[in-house]
Batch of 2 targets.
Target 1
Amino acid sequence: MAKQYFLSLLLIAGLMSACEDSAVGPTLSINSSPTLTSPTAGANIVLTEATAGDAFDITWTAADFGFQAAVTYTVELDLAGNSFADPVVLGSTSGTALNLTQQDVNTALFITKGLVGEKEADVEMRVRAVVNSDVAAIYSAPVSMKMTPYTIVIVYPQLQVPGSYQSWDPANNTTVIYSLKSNGKFEGYIHFQDDNTKFKFTDGPSWDNNWGDTGGDGTLDAGGTDIEAGPAGTYKLNVDINALTYSAVLTNWGVIGSATPNGWGDPDQDMTYDPATRLHTITLDLVAGEIKFRANDDWAINYGDDGADGRLDFNAPSNIAIAEAGNYTISMNLRGPIYTYTIVKN
């Protein structure tokens, strides 16, 4: 009887052990990441307005997480060498293909990513596979390629800036400031060739809705007194039409940096405004190094180029590279909603 009791205890212990082992459940074993199959590495893709409606299909192989699960795939695109620090998402799907148009991809490149139209860019694409928030995402190997977006003409909201410097013409579309985010906040640079220039703001090519500053206190008043600038020069104008406030800051532009004669020390290398081209320019000798643009020998208003795309970015952390020593002509264009620059070796 004692022997039977002992055997029963062993049987119960064995059953408990089996139950404990079975409670562990399945373990995650990633058998394979997705592989991007189209576009292929080294592709040179030129997007055009004429082919905007053409199909742009992205395909890849399925990811294998080692167990049956519904997988969501997301296609990401970023500049080459950026390690996908700031990717643009082209789309998501549960299948192994994303069916887009060239217009979809161009919008992602030109609008979302801010690339320059008609200019080739080195980019990388990858596929992100996700099961759920409890399982780490897996990625395809990035595929490198070249893409050239086309320019999309964007009509930004604008305020006219009529004044004594342009014959008080509210219909003059060369003297306007823009709201890039369409949020009632406008910015732009206007050059006043004379001291004490007077101006106002209007919301269209007429005087129906116009604002001045009756008290001279930086607050806009509907139909108010003309605003008077100080010394002649290029002014950075900012308007918040919702808060009815504005500012007008005189800017004297220059370049600074390790490539310039004074390095990163003061003073800057002063640029000259050309009223014929409406550009700020300078011709000078540079060494290999970096530069930035800044106003008034100060860092309060400065521009670099984060994407190395010829567009100026306010207070950008990225400087502008000068590859080799030589004599250069540098031009800065503050005319439109997007500020740009050129650097030409003479």
Note: The domain at 253-345 is CATH 2.60.40 (Immunoglobulin-like).
Target 2
Amino acid sequence: MPQNTPPPSRQDILRLDALGLLNEFAGDLVGIEDPDSLLWAVAERTISRLGWVDCVIYLLDPQRNVLIQKAAFGPKSIDYKSIFQPLEVPVGRGVVGQVASTGESLRLNNTSEFHDYIRDDAMRLSELAVPISWGDTVLGVIDSEHPKANFYSVEDQLILETIAGITATKIKNATNAKDNADLALFYERNPNAVLQLDQARTVCFINKSAQLSFPQYPECGSKLDEKGLDEALQKAAIKGHSTWRSYHNIPENEETRTIEFQVVHLPSGQFNLYGSDITHLLNLQKAAEAANEAKSRFLSVISHEIRTPLNAILGLTDLLIHDNPSRKEQLQHLAYMEFSGRHLISLVNDILDIEKMASGKVSSLPNELDLHALISNIIDSFRNRAEREGLNLSLELDSSVPKKLIADAKWITQILNNLISNSIKYTDQGQIHVRVCSILGESIPNKTATIRFEVCDTGRGIEQKELNRILQPFEQVQTDSNIEGTGLGLTIVKSILDQMKGTLSIASKPGEGSTFTAEFPVKNATIQSPQWAMPPERDTTNPNEIPKGQIKTDSESFLNEGRSSNCPILLTDDNELNRFVASKLLSRWGFEVIEAKNGREAVEAWSKHGPCIILMDVQMPEMDGIEATRKIRSEEMRTGVQRSPILALTADAEEKTFERILSSGMDNRIVKPFDPPVLKEIMGKVMIQFMSNAS
């Protein structure tokens, strides 16, 4: 009689069908690439395939060292693939944390006996947790709980560990796929050229930037054959280091682009090429080298230009001291010395002007002016020089040019001075014709007009290739070396016109001559009667120029009046030679001169002699001119005595120094070296103002 056999247990069924179950499980996950969707699918199928009631999957956050819930199916999450408040378990805490810490599975038949059991929404007596591992690295944990004790078997643990292995593989593949996609996107969108070649130089990968650099090799599978590339690849493969740089000139729109490649030899035998377009960098390097060469040439020219007049001054001084020349010879020597000194000042002014223009330190100071008179005076100042050179200098002043307009007289003077001086310098014979006209404007007050200066010469002319170069700082036309000057004249003109929103153009033919055309906007002046209260123009380009906008006066009569009133001049300077020169000039004009060698002595002298005209050096020992002026102004306010005119006598022509001078209470400045006639004129202006205030 056959014996009754008991039905197979759940463990027997699982043991017999484990292989088929795992195959079906793996099949369920085919096509799921998104990591989040993958984890939810694993949790769901673990319950449905194994008949469990709960499955939670955690992933490790290695930076924070915590496990974070990513998927959960069971009593806590039945219908929704989302976790509103994901549980975070520190590594090492509870069942899940311990599995992540040790990397080993943990099966509990009675959780109440586990010392670090973390209770969730209800007590569950059985728990099975296995690590999701890739090699020795724990990626996460799969955890399942059941309300009954002794629910999970060894077979359950083996099956879940196999599921965890499948999950780890899928996670790693998904991560690698994402990393590869991100890397491919990075290379594809990289603005630099990226290529990969095999050992036969066949292109395995090429991004869009590389295709633009190599239009003849647009696709993978092409063979890259560039000059110099073979040598670069061979050296990269043979040398101990894995990188080599190669340079390739790529024709592009009839210009040569230079691409610098870094060649990396991979262990697989392939080569990665990373290219950067360094054309702009090379151009900048060439420009910098050219600028340095120009500066070197400029310094050589400046050295010659400065040493020549200095040599003349020192030589003539020696002749005056030791040769006992006649009065006529003395005057001739002194005239040469004066000419050399003025040439030195011109050099210094050119250098300072271009530095100010480049740094934007010079601002326009427009005022009403008589353009006709200004231009005529400029032309007249060049007539003697032109005659000495055997040149005919002529002026054509068009009737369209307004007589009165609002503009910066100093800038206009610099423009025309430099253009005429440049033409005289490069014209050996013939003529220089200056034409001035007005375009695009009407003679209506405040209406904008455009003034055009044309300076035409019959000089040597300029080669076409040099036209742009000569407008750069420190550049001169490459011609005979006997041309004197700094080469800054045209640069100064262009810088001024740029700030005036004007233009400079040059038309030239070698051997025939050149025409320099400057155009700049101005405003026609409104009709205004002169007033005593109009403020003087503040001139930052030439501080020694007589202020404009005042009624013209006779300086000699002012000086006579000052001498008769016994008004002293307080001369303050720490340099004995400067005091000697200024004192001799002032004494020659009949002034009583009181000398002080620093600010402290100046304050004491002013306190002793009372109100006077003060010439104040700025930089002095013990007490500088700024502090001395403030003390004098403070005492004037306290005592109520007449205000003394204080003029800064300084070698510092910087704008920021002028600001300090004015803010201290000084009235104006005279820049050393000064022109004696200009100093005399300024003293006359100051004297009449001082005498008027005293009466």
Note: The first helix runs from residue 10 to 28.
